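lol ok so funny story. i was supposed to be doing the assay writeup but got distracted and ended up predicting the structure for this chain instead. priorities right. anyway since i did it might as well share w the group, maybe its usefull for someone
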Amino acid sequence: MQDLDLLLGHYAWVGILISADLGEYHRKFLLITQYLISKGCLSTLEQCRFFLQGLQPALEACISQHLQQKFLDHCPDDPYDLSATYEAISFVLMGMSSTTLAQGPTPSNPSTSLTTSSQDHTSAKIEALMAAIASLGEMFKSAIQTQPVGARPRPPAAIGMGAPGLSICNFCSRAGHYIRECEVVNKYIHTGKCKHSANGKVVLTSGTMVLCGIMGAWLRDCVDEWHRLNPGQMAAQMLFEVSAIAPVLLKDAVDQSKCSCPTKPVDQHSEKMPVGVFTLNRQT
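and the output, tada:
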């Protein structure tokens, strides 16, 4: 519809003065309107009505007058056939010069022609407005249909820090506590599904935040969905943590064994004394 509006506006501004201009306008008009008709966006009657809107007011008045004289029994509210309108434009262009078209014709009843022209412009504007509203409705409908199935809007109480009575945990969706006090978070940390970062945020075991593309209404659902898509991450993370703390545990065990079996200090003077003197000193 936008291409059709641009085409009609261009030729209504530039004007159709010779048969070559008419042929070019007719060819482009058919290319756009036939595509819109095949998609169900335009009817045949609307096609015939839109064809006259690409003409300047002077030429349009001449064409309307010629068609009224040629088709006496035609209803004024119905648009003329596209082929008949094209032949009428060709006939008028052959008998009129570009100067006459620029000056405009002298109709027998000017008030009737002006009224008909204004009505046509008003109806065209109304039809364009209705088409824009219909296209906007289709855009909203398609946007709603393309939303993820698992995603749903959270209740207003979950947004921000409200009153204590309205607090809802963003992790488990239960009321009465926040995520820092959630027991479900501690259970997930114990099972190795998530952990607390240095900033106190709940992150995956790898230390990264849960991606926004993971489907889930709450953070717990997102964590479960991530582990479903990435199986074996909990075992790998636990093995990594055990391998990281194993050297520390081994060092502590060696230090404790040394402390439990202390070495007996040796008296330096006893090494130099004879055996009898050392025994006598111990008895005394």
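Residues 130 and 136 are 10 Å apart (CA to CA). The radius of gyration is 45 Å.
back to the writeup now i swear
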